[in-house]
Amino acid sequence: MKTLAFAIAALAAATTVVWAGPVEDREAIMKERGQIVGGLSKVAKGEAAFDSAAVQEQLKALDANAKKVDVDVLWAAAATGNTGDSPESSPKIWEDMEGFTAANEKYDADVAAAVAAPPADVAALQATMGTIGKNCGGCHETFRISKN
User: In Å, how far are 17, 24, 118, 125 from 133, measured between CA atoms?
Assistant: First the structure.
């Protein structure tokens, strides 16, 4: 019976993901991204112990998260009318799709580089997180409407 309940719950979750729209999908991806970056930031700030294996796993999770982003699907112009489709998405995304795509590709490349050459200590992680953070901050400054 527990197996059946688990199977039904898993199917319901999978169905939700399949039927979610681009706004919900990208919000879920960004929320997951924020959680991963938050955990890595705690280590970089000295609020959590540095464990190279754990850091590498988190970087791999960040890389997997980055690979979920398909700009053409998640920010499709036809679905949004080029005006923004959520309170946090700036119309600048659709006005400068080339710049938005380039920012996403730079983030992807920097995360992949961090996985390929994982930080060996806190100082190296701080540098890595500085690079990744600049990507996030730059994109948010240009292509996101502040919640405030």
Answer: 28, 23, 16, 12
